[in-house]
Amino acid sequence: MPITTEDVLTCLHRMAGVIEENKKYLTKLDSPIGDADHGVNMNRGFKSVLKKVSSAEDKDAGTILKTAGMALVSSVGGAGGPLYGTAFMQAGMAVAGKYELEGEDILNALSSALDGVVMRGKASPGDKTMVDAITPAVDAMEEALDNGADTAGALEAASEAAKQGMKDTIPMLAKKGRASYLGERSIGHQDPGATSSYLLINTMAEVAREKKRSS
Description:
Blueprint: E1 3-4, H1 5-21, H2 23-30, H3 38-53, H4 61-75, H5 80-94, E2 100-101, H6 103-121, H7 131-146, H8 151-168, H9 192-214
Antiparallel strand pairs: 1-2
């Protein structure tokens, strides 16, 4: 069950909707430990993504994802723009020229996205950032594929791991970004970047699950 460029576009549209639905929630999470603008910034970014990718609908998956990444870099304020923009651009480079994606392709894209975020933000697992959601997602997806799961099943495993990783940021002491300035006061708050990362990965899983049901 390959994921087509049409599915990638569907996923981006769905991501934009999910971010808009959770705009206030993400901003609420960002209020005590950040600038209280993560939801607003991400929503603006994904609105820009939808405008930009409309001109790349006939392109390969890599080009679509890179276009999305460039839109995020240019429209999302704060650290989110460079981080998410780099993630999408690196994911696009990993699947350059491909019009159909298998599970391994998506794993490579997600792993490359993580590498891009780590390279850009210099964060490690345990620093209370989006890395804490994406890292377990990559590991879980790789393990699921190794154990014979299909694309939908592997992405489901990635989503569950990202969700747990997101929750695991609550007791962490922030070591990167604005939240790190708060020291011990950052403990007890769920990281907004990890939360938006989970929402995006979960959307990927939902699109793959629906594709499997309809095939």
